[in-house]
Amino acid sequence: MKRTSKEQPTDLGRRRFLGRSGIAVAGIGIISSGLLTPAAWAASAVGEHASATLLRMARDIYPHDTLENKYYAAVLTPLARKAGKDMALKKMLAEGVKALDQRSQQLFSRNFLELEHESDRVLVLRAIEESPFFQRIKGDLMMGIYNNPELWPRFGYGGSAWQKGGYINRGYDKIDWL
Amino acid sequence: MNTKFDLNDDSLVVIVGSGAGGGTLANELAQKGIKSVVLEAGKRFKLDDIENDEWKMFGKISWLDKRYLEGPARLAKDFPNLPAWIVKGVGGATMHWAGVAMRFQEHEFRMRTENGTVPGANVLDWPITLKELDPYYYKAEQKMGVCGTEATGMPFHGKSSHYKVIEEGARRIGAKCEQATLAINTQIRDGRPSCQVNGFCMQGCRIGAKWSTMYTEIPRAEATGLVEVRPQSMALRIEHDKQGNVTGVLYADKDGNQHFQKARLVSVAANSIESPRLLLNSASPMFPDGLANGSGQVGQNYMTHTTAGVYGEFEQPVHMYKSTVVPGIVHEWKDNDPSRGHVAGYELEVLHLGLPFMSAFLNPGKSGWGRELADSLANYDRMAGFWICGEDMPVESNNITLHPTEKDQYGLPVPVVYKTDHINDTRMRNHAYDRSTELLEAVGAKKVNYLPPYPASHNMGTNRMSRHARDGVVNRWGQSHEIQNLFISDGSQFTTSGTENPTLTIVALAIRQADYIADQMKRGNL
Fold first, then answer.
1. Could you give the dihedral angle defined by the CA atoms of residues B390, B393, B395 and B399, in that order, rounded to the nearest 10 degrees?
2. In angstroms, rounded to a whole number, what is the distance separating the alpha carbons of residues A19 and A67?
3. What residue ranges in B40-190 does DSSP mark as E strands?
4. Residue boundaries of the structural domains of chain B
5. How far is B505 from chain A (nearest CA, A)?
6. Which of B76, B234, B292, B505 is most buried as measured by Cβ atoms within 10 A of its Cβ?
7. In chain A, what residues touch B200 (CB-CB under 8 Å)?
8. What ipTM score was computed for the predicted complex, to two decimals?
9. For B372-392, how does the pLDDT look when each residue is reduced to its tens digit (9 = 90+)?
10. Domain B13-521 class?
């Protein structure tokens, strides 16, 4: 799937990445049909297989089963967008996915995406965790998942409080199970 | 406020650094009518610049100039370029601190006498006692507004849910636990508001309830008209005359232009990596090993406190972030009781991290990922725990040296920090892990996580105070043994680290030092 000249890698990023990844990866979450846009610049930047592999990998690095794919995709999309312009990054992602599959083939005679068990995928990922490729994905994910104000309520974290007058009158001393 | 001094004015005190040591000294001297220029490497921030956002503030105020951390400790692997977590900005590390203000214990000034020789450590008694420092601690507590002390009469903050969990655990195992004496207002005091429990004390208090020289000592010093603060002014070297007295400080401004500010007296208060670095970078034919370094102790005995984190996961919510960052302290093991298997003591400081930092420090480094970590982070709201803060053994080989070839943006050799545990540190940390676990499990923790040390905010010892010139860098007043008009005014003058957070002691020493300098000037000795 080629990117047409009219499409800009701006607003379309997140959902298109998601769209392509969702097709390739079975069983990792419900993708709403509205997001299944066929032309995926993200996939064209790093390849459809790579997009899907990255999403699977992202979910294994910080696995929160109740978090929707869109939060993981929101991390990968800007990365793929950047790779569209940054040849070194594009190469790192492409070669990283390739190395991941190679390691997977060595251990299980299948590509990473075809490994059904999390424990098998983790074994493959542990084998490449020192690589700049893995660390880049991990670093971006840490920021994108745990430093994402949109997700803080899901983790029970309050975020910025000064503008709400802090917690002095909002239950700083409340606990009922001691 | 807009005082400008001439570069050739040699009647001035030049102070390098504007944090707990430098900022306090400038104001104390100014109140006595003594003029100074404060050279601060970082920018001037406003209260509006302070956000309740961990990573944004980390990026905004941290000292991120190139440094190397070496040694076999895990910290060097996890954070090879970030040995210390301190600030580059007017106010220095008084922006990044939780406000914990505790006095040293009496025995902590004489650890050599208490324990004799500790093999592999370079322990020395301080040349001062608690009794001598007590009046200055009192003044420091008043100045900083420390709650829960006689000096201010301000009450404690009140028990947060996080504190209550720990207090109950401590009660169940018979350990002593108290609310923390914090330099954070619990009443409107000294022109600053009362704490509203935002939960973001550490990286700068948005409302200014926590003491920082940024909005207390510095503006007060400037208001006297006797102090000029020059932000974005990086000290490069200290010059001296033929007699060996210092004459001023060469520094680079924000555009990289170099200036030489003449001085009557120089105070170095740039924290325990930059302070010795400046002395080492000031080597000359007369002082080939660096200024004030006849003992060879400049840059040695780098201490950070023996630290780690411990967080328990409970079945019910704790919401630890709805609290002052350090609401309380478990004091049970702060004494010096070698029967525990280690000398010196530690505090368990009840302390929360936000989710962003918890994700970074729960299992830092390259292999910190996977389901176990994610499951713990999913329990963020049900966590409670500690930061372990214990006395760190001074070890000569834990030190600050200059990189042989690599230079930073100012053209100065990059500092290389070597830091690893003394066996006493390891034993102490393990003891603290065990007791913390016992405490947390006593109140129902289902899982207890051990966080390895993260980059140090308590940095001490690299220009230490000693009775004899052969053992250290400065005397009991923080004055160089070798150069009488050169002073050290930060935590690098600590002879040993004590168990307590260093800021209060730095401030007490700076107030005391200002008295001494003023007195010596009056007598015509300086």
1. 20
2. 17
3. 68-70, 177-179
4. 13-521
5. 29
6. B292
7. 160-162
8. 0.94
9. 999 999 999 999 999 999 999
10. alpha beta
